[in-house]
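To assess whether ligand presence alters the predicted conformation, the chain was also submitted together with nicotinamide-adenine-dinucleotide. Input:
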Amino acid sequence: MSQIVFTPRESSGETRVALTPETAAALRKLGLTVLVESNAGIASDYRNEDYTAAGAQLVTDRKSALQTADIVLRVRKPAADEIALLKPGCMHISFLDAFQDKATLQLLAQAGVTTISMEMMPRTTLAQKMDALSSQANLAGYAAVVQGAARLRRILPMMMTPAGTIAPARVFVIGVGVAGLQAIATAKRLGARVEAFDTRPVVEEQVRSLGAKFVKIDLGDTGQTAQGYARELTPEQIAKQREGMAKVCAQSDIVITTAKLFGRKAPVLLTADIIARMKQGSVIVDLAAESGGNVEGTVFNQTVTTANGVSIIGSGCLEATVATHASQVYASNLLNFISHFWDEKQGSFSLKPEDEIQKGCVLTHGGAIVHSQFK
Ligand code: NAD
């Protein structure tokens, strides 16, 4: 009998979906029976009829689908009452927020679920096509510029008109990982003058190759982890960095902050005194809002305006504003993960505890937390 994969409709305002009609068809080809909750794709413009045309079955009884599924695909972590419905031995694949939410992980372990955390996908060449943090951060970087530009009461490109010349806007990107690079590229495409800073020295060349200017701030030894993530700075280094960035912020129209520390709270880089020196009407987009924020005064999922007229956009998940494409690439990450380990003869996912990719992202299995970082 073929295995069942189920994608429930997301809750709590999430606009993305973990299955697209395209990936539904590909999962069917692997031999899976594909169930999708009715209207699961509607907030990202994937219609029920597109799923059924792709060979998926629409489900209205979410509870019984959760009880029968061998694989559950989601964007966000499952609620406690829905974990209780899952079949022991089934596989649950989603973002999990496991560093902040240990209770959900415990429940998944107790329920005997094999839990895959998409945040924990290793950053290796082989796993690149499964790397959902990157696929989403890329779109968030794009959306940050679009949101910032929409809020700004100026234009981004230089314009020479009979009525005079309009100077290009200045955009400053702090943190040049996946999101930062896409923010630079997008702001450049819109014609802005772009500057950027990151604590990882390797980034300077990438910034330059996109036609932006790298802001030099000497912080001494910073480095990066084996996975390519930034190391935490000392309080002295953070103070130096703030000093170095203040002048650039004061001249900028849009500042986009994307500085994150994997699994930890984001560093506060723009303090109130830096923001107080920024121009009336300038806009800060804090892409680290969900992990505490890079900006003093960020309110999660809100836009606030300071006394000196600076808007701070604190949307937690900007990729969800471009949900069609965010879902397309996220669903593709999930499909690539399943396909990579698909055993055609058995018609099932093969668990390989010694595999480097699975070692990285399988958090619970066989009734226990199995990942070394969470045990
Ligand atoms: P991230 O979201 O954890 O952090 C975003 C950026 O913030 C990083 O560039 C980081 O260096 C920077 N940052 C941290 N503290 C800072 C501070 N105080 N000031 C300024 N910047 C600060 O990182 P990410 O975007 O997920 O990726 C980080 C790196 O990993 C990138 O170089 C990326 O290209 C690399 N990567 C590699 C692979 C792969 O090999 N398969 C996949 C994805 C990403």
